[in-house]
Amino acid sequence: MPPKEVQKLEEMGNELYEKTGIPVFVAAVAELNATKPVDLLEPIKANHTDYILLYFSAQPTAVNIFASQSAEKLIDIDQILSPLPWRGTIKPVMSPAFSKSDSVKFEVAIFNGYADIVDQVAQSKGVKLASSIGSGSKESFKIIRWIFYGILAFFLMQYIYTKTRKRRGKQ
Fold this sequence. Notes:
CATH topology of the largest domain: Diaminopimelate Epimerase, Chain A, domain 1
Helix content: 55-70%
CATH architecture of the largest domain: Roll
Number of strands: 3
Structural class: alpha+beta
Strand content: 5-15%
Shape: elongated
CATH class of the largest domain: Alpha Beta
Distance between the termini: 71 Å
Largest sheet: 3 strands, mixed
Number of helices: 7
């Protein structure tokens, strides 16, 4: 990852740890069989009672989130790992539809996933992070979705209204 992105991740993680005491780690490995998540979790568990680990493997492509029981309650793992573009922050970027190189996909997925985890932990703990990148795209998706559903509901109501008027006119 570019140094600027790594610096931003460290800044967000350090601020979250200072304010909540919950560390968020990232592990990106080239091969799943070479470095297993269990091997990475041992030192984390030894040093921290609460933790979150965002784990990536390039070959085969795998992503997962490991967390202590109490930290797991602070985030929505299903939402973060969802393949739906309006819900998930990692898997939609890693899909074949995202037409960038594999390295760019991993960089974006790691950055988005880590930022989402940090934001969710901060929100769950009622903490405001100065280093947060925010969730502007999520809010945009929500607005677009509500507009779409509104238009769909309008046309459905219009259709029902027209059908009932025609039936009343025939009787």
